[in-house]
Design goal:
The chain is α+β, with helices and mostly antiparallel strands and 718 residues long. It has 17 helices and 29 strands. Strand 5 and strand 6 (148-154) form a beta hairpin.
């Protein structure tokens, strides 16, 4: 250690104070011979000498010239071992690369202004790649030409515990929580690893564990550097033998406890297998290890995993250090369990989201969907959902919704609204009528007594429903507060649809208004994009600009492009990185029926209408080369439906026949609004048998309502 006769410089003043912190024996005492592997956790610890503990040196000093190179150094205390503070080297070589610009600016600032910069919490790099957390102060020299003095104080253990506790648990991602714990533990060693029970990693509940079925996965490892071949790194499962050894070591007499293995020889005796040694020992320099169970307190206590802190055998763990490690790990256990619960909820909601994604759009619409969940540190998977399904009458429903909130409450509401919308649309209700029912559902779910859960509200959720008619090639669309869909016709000149804004689902009674139904032409080859706000929202730009970017990107999709690949491309362009909100996109390419596969007739509601309908339909079926038995069935079906329309309704009757796949779809529309009901007429009754005949002749039938009346449809296998 160098010194100078003049006590006036900051370096000399700091150095003269170091004598008060030099230990007087006891602290450097070596550990005794290692106990047998089965002994208790007293292995490798150095008992604390209270006097030595108070006098342990934690203060050092470094002098710099105006080029920020080291001219004198006093970092001889054991706590600073490994810091390569060599005379003539730049001081910034001691810093992690990411901290260099900020510290360099501070050093130059003190040189220029002469004002000290004190108590900066800073990391310093050791030669082996590990780091030391210190409180760093930059002091100007007494004579400006002499440069700077940097005083270094090793962080007090209690202060480090406090800093670590505030840093851990700021994220609900289990991997980030484990990483924060490992980084905090590095202050006590050269290498820190966190191994979690596989059930914790996946978010499952952990209870009683069978000793022979222990499975640990490495969740975090610091520092970040190249590791020997065979060493377990984050994301890898520990070998079965290693998992069992660690689990048995920390669960002795059915009570979780910390153990210390002091040197490499003892580590080899405990681990035994060369394969386990390669998997767990991070190199030759780090030979001693403290294993601390990550325990969730309870009856009985639950071990979530094992934390390992490795360091050189010439630095044995003191009793106080082991207590500090146990305290930090114990304080972290509930953060890990919270992250586990979040992971479980995240997985459940994500599974529900995936289940709700559309599988097929039918023969008349090609669909593709992309769902990208929010970033892991968000509040959880949101309530975005899309659905697409063929309706029984040959049309196709396309639905997108965004439920307020995140997590299980939003997921439950999302699932309920999605299933309700599908059921109502399949029952023949129009999009605006379906939204009216969903609006009432959201209001009921928000009720204090009958709602889903206290503290959760779905008020303000949005939904957009589009129904595509493959015969007329039109979209009937209704929206409840949702962003407008984007429609790109075959010529590629697309844009957002002009949909009248609406306050959304569950709005106050004073704000409620009818849900308008919009109709848009969608000729074959048109591309419709339904999405949620996470795809187009950007705090830096107006929402209209985001929708415009979506329209431009969708317009660039070539008619021959694979639709699923195109959907992924659109999301990658608009949301290249994970967002704080879910990203959902549904692309639908309209195909429709070929002109020769459909026929429509409009007949006056007269007594001869059934006969004319049979003649027209019969001629068409012969041109389609339909089998005789199918033709007879269809003719009887048309006769019954037209007869009912003439008898119970007024105005013209519309007959439509559609050849779809292996079936024939027959539709009869009229101006009546009564609901046909299936009933079995008596033996002598004159009426009531028509729908019973329809029911027996068809594979399925139903009713849908229109602005001018209703349509009764029925399907027959060809």
């Amino acid at each position: 250690m160098e010194s100078t006769p003049s006590p006036s410089s900051p370096f000399d003043l700091v150095s003269s104070a170091l004598g008060r912190y030099i230990p007087r024996g006891g602290a450097a005492a070596a550990a005794g011979p290692a106990d047998a592997p089965g002994d208790r956790a007293a292995r490798g610890r150095v008992p604390d000498d209270p006097e030595a503990g108070r006098q342990e040196q934690i203060l050092g000093a470094v002098n710099l010239d105006r080029d920020l190179r080291i001219t004198r150094c006093n970092l001889d205390a054991p706590v600073f071992a490994g810091l390569d503070a060599v005379i003539g080297r730049p001081f910034i070589d001691l810093l992690p690369p990411g901290d260099v610009p900020a510290v360099r600016r501070r050093l130059l600032q003190v040189l220029d202004t002469g004002e000290a910069h004190v108590a900066r919490i800073q990391r310093l790099r050791r030669g082996d790649g590990s780091e030391l957390v210190v409180s760093l102060s930059i002091l100007p020299a007494a004579v400006p030409q002499e440069g700077l003095t940097v005083s270094v104080i090793a962080m007090a253990t209690r202060l480090h515990l406090y800093a670590a506790e505030t840093a851990i648990g700021t994220s609900l991602d289990i991997g980030e929580t484990a990483q924060s714990l490992a980084e905090s533990l590095l202050a006590w060693g050269d290498v820190a690893a966190v191994d979690l029970d596989y059930a914790v990693w996946t978010g499952e509940g952990v209870s009683e564990q069978a000793r022979g079925r222990i499975r640990l996965r490495r969740a975090a490892l610091v520092p970040d550097r190249a590791w020997p071949e065979g060493y377990v790194t984050p994301g890898d499962d520990l070998p079965g033998d290693a998992s069992r050894l660690l689990a048995q070591a920390v669960r002795r007499d059915d009570a979780p406890q910390a153990i210390v293995i002091p040197d490499r020889e003892a580590v080899e005796r405990v681990l035994g297998s060369p394969r386990v040694m390669r998997a767990l020992v991070p190199g030759d320099r780090s030979a001693g290890v403290a294993c601390i169970p990550l325990v969730l307190e309870g009856t009985p206590p639950v071990v979530l995993g094992v934390v390992e802190v490795w360091r050189r055998s010439d630095r044995p763990f003191r009793d106080s250090e082991l207590f500090d490690l146990q305290e930090l790990v114990a304080r972290t256990a509930h953060h890990v369990d919270l992250a586990r619960q979040h992971q479980r909820e995240h997985t459940q909601v994500l599974a529900l989201q995936r289940r709700l994604l559309p599988r097929t759009g039918g023969d008349t619409v090609e669909i593709a969907s992309v769902y990208q969940p929010a970033t892991p540190d968000s509040a959880g998977v949101g309530g975005d959902w899309v659905n697409s399904f063929p309706l029984p009458d040959g049309r196709t429903a396309l639905v997108v919704g965004d439920v307020v909130g995140h997590g299980l409450g939003a997921a439950a509401t999302m699932g309920q609204l999605s299933m309700e919308a599908r059921a109502l649309l399949s029952a023949g209700l129009a999009p605006d009528e379906v939204l009216e029912h969903l609006d009432e559902t959201v209001t009921l779910l928000d009720d204090a007594e009958s709602g889903l859960a206290a503290g959760y509200s779905a008020l303000g959720s949005t939904c957009c429903i589009a129904v595509y008619d493959p015969v007329s090639h039109h979209l009937a669309l209704s929206s409840a507060g949702h962003l407008p869909p984007v429609l790109v016709p075959p010529d590629g000149s697309g844009g957002p649809l002009a949909v009248r804004p609406h306050p959304g689902l569950g709005a106050e009674f004073a704000l409620r208004e009818p849900f308008p139904v919009h109709s848009f032409a969608a000729p074959p080859g048109s591309l419709l994009a339904l999405y949620t706000d996470g795809l187009v929202e950007d705090p830096a730009v107006p929402i209209d600009e985001g929708i415009g970017r979506l329209a431009d990107t969708v317009s660039a999709v070539h008619p021959w492009d694979a639709l699923q690949q195109a959907a992924r491309h659109v999301v990658s362009v608009l949301a290249p990185v994970r967002q704080r909100d879910d990203v959902t996109l549904l692309l639908a390419r309209m195909i429709g029926y070929r002109e020769g596969d459909t026929a429509t007739w409009r007949l006056p509601a007269r007594d001869d209408a059934p006969e004319r309908a049979r003649a027209l339909v019969g001629a068409l079926l012969r041109r389609w080369h339909t089998r005789d038995d199918t033709r007879h069935t269809v003719l009887l079906l048309v006769s019954e439906l037209v007869t009912n329309a003439v008898r119970f309704a007024t105005g013209p009757v519309t007959v439509r026949l559609i050849r779809a796949g292996r079936g024939l779809l027959c539709e009869v529309g009229d101006t009546g609004n009564g609901r046909p009901r299936l009933g079995r007429g008596g033996l002598l009754d004159d009426g009531g048998r028509g729908l019973y005949v329809v029911h027996r002749l068809t594979t399925r039938w139903g009713v849908r309502w229109t602005d001018t009346g209703k349509v009764v449809w029925a399907e027959v296998v060809r």
